[in-house]
């Protein structure tokens, strides 16, 4: 497993979710109203990574959904990093063994 650190904004969102006793709505987790958080895709990305989970709602309406921290999200909220499985391309089978061509040096 590899370790990935989180951004300060992501850490703030996770800490807000950790401090809450009940699951928070997407609008409550939009701490900074700027163009990066306008469409709610940051919430969907946190769910895809496994830091948050949906209690109600879905990715179709991220601000209407409610969220809860996962175990991985609690660790990230506390330490600012989490473990993840890196995506590796599938291994290709070895190519058929081809005869090795020997270069012959020409004599002059």
Compact description:
The chain is an alpha+beta fold. Helices cover 31% and strands 18% of the residues.
Describe this structure in words.
This protein is α+β, with helices and mostly antiparallel strands and 108 residues long. Helix content is 31%, strand content 18%. It is built from 4 helices and 5 strands. It has helices spanning 8-19, 26-29, 41-49, 71-79; strands at residues 2-5, 24-25, 52-56, 66-69, 81-84. The strands form 2 sheets. The protein has a 3-stranded antiparallel β-sheet with strand order 2-4-3. α1 (8-19) crosses α4 (71-79). It is elongated and about 85 Å long. The model has no long low-confidence stretch (mean pLDDT 88).
Order of the strands making up the biggest sheet: 2-4-3
C-alpha end-to-end distance:
59 Å
Radius of gyration: 24 Å
Proportion of strand residues: 15-25%
Number of separate strands: 5
Task: Give me the oligomer status.
Answer: single chain
The ordered string of helix (H) and strand (E) elements is: EHEHHEEHE
Topology:
Blueprint: E1 2-5, H1 8-19, E2 24-25, H2 26-29, H3 41-49, E3 52-56, E4 66-69, H4 71-79, E5 81-84
Features:
108 residues; 3-stranded antiparallel sheet; two-stranded antiparallel sheet
């Amino acid at each position: 497993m590899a370790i990935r650190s989180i951004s300060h904004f992501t850490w703030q969102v996770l800490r807000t979710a950790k401090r809450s006793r009940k699951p928070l709505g997407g609008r409550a987790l939009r701490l900074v109203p700027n163009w990066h958080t306008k469409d709610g895709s940051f919430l969907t990305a946190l769910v895809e990574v496994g830091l948050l989970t949906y209690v109600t709602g879905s990715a179709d309406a991220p601000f209407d959904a409610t969220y809860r921290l996962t175990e991985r999200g609690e660790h990230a909220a506390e330490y600012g990093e989490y473990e993840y499985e890196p995506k590796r391309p599938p291994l290709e089978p070895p190519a058929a063994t081809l005869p090795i061509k020997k270069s012959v040096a020409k004599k002059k």
